[in-house]
Amino acid sequence: MAGVTSAAAAPAIPGGGSITLKQLTKIYGHETVVDRFDAVIAAGEFFSLLGPSGSGKTTTLMMIAGFAPIDAGELFVDGRDLSTLPPERRGFGMVFQNYAIFPHLDVFENVAFPLRARRMRGKEVRDRVAWALGLVQLGHLADRYARQLSGGQQQRVAIARAIVFHPGIVLMDEPLGALDKNLRYDMQVEIKEIQNRLGMTVIYVTHDQEEAMNLSDRVAIMNRGRVEQIGPPQVVYEHPANAFTAKFLGEANLLAGNVAGTDVARSTFRLAGGEVLAARRSGTVPTSGAGRLFVRPEKIALASPGTEAGGENQLSGQVRRVSFLGNV
Question: How far apart are CA 184 and CA 156, in angstroms?
Fold first, then answer.
């Protein structure tokens, strides 16, 4: 076939499902790779698992999907315990990091695969595949094979296959990792638009901070199997719970010193050189003793000597190096 089109109205799509993770734990040998993960993910939410390699984010996703057994804890979807169900009975859509496009099938049959596995036939398959390919703008490539597609087109096929059977929940494991920067951003926009249009719940694994901040309603920062912080991207960025979150989600300057005093909203901080700065409290802040002050680069403004305005939070320094980065 040269392509598929559908004049039918878009099918009714069920809303996303709510997900509850209770003390979700995974142990390999003597190592705990996911340590008591707790989260409640609302129906229709875009929830990202963000962390460096080895943080446990993909293992968490595999437990949710059913590909890795849960060693301790429970998984509930819309109040139903799915902890021991096999993957095929959980009803989730899945987008893998390597796309997992079947090379011997054309685009149409790749997208139709989950429908045929559910014993759908004929017009229902054609209509659903046409709808899904139309959503990812690939209806004109229905007869092509994986080797004839670009990376971005293969990614769209994987997304169409994940949503064609109308799941309420879609899991995505670093789906944009193999794409170049510009195409990654374009695909982020498309994924978010599709999620908003269908109202599905998405759990998304990534190590890319900008990607997580751009896509997510909330993000879980993971480190060595544990959750450091969960919250909306702006809240986590502006109010990190600890130094790891401050450094991992964006750039941060960490200044050592001592807490000189605190009130409800702010702390007074004395640097090692004796300078005193006022800072907004973030995370668990001691009332005295050693601590670290973090400053985002975009919060720093430079002034020539003698031209700076009066006020608090001013430090003297020298410009050592200038790098041109264009429009970053």
Answer: 12
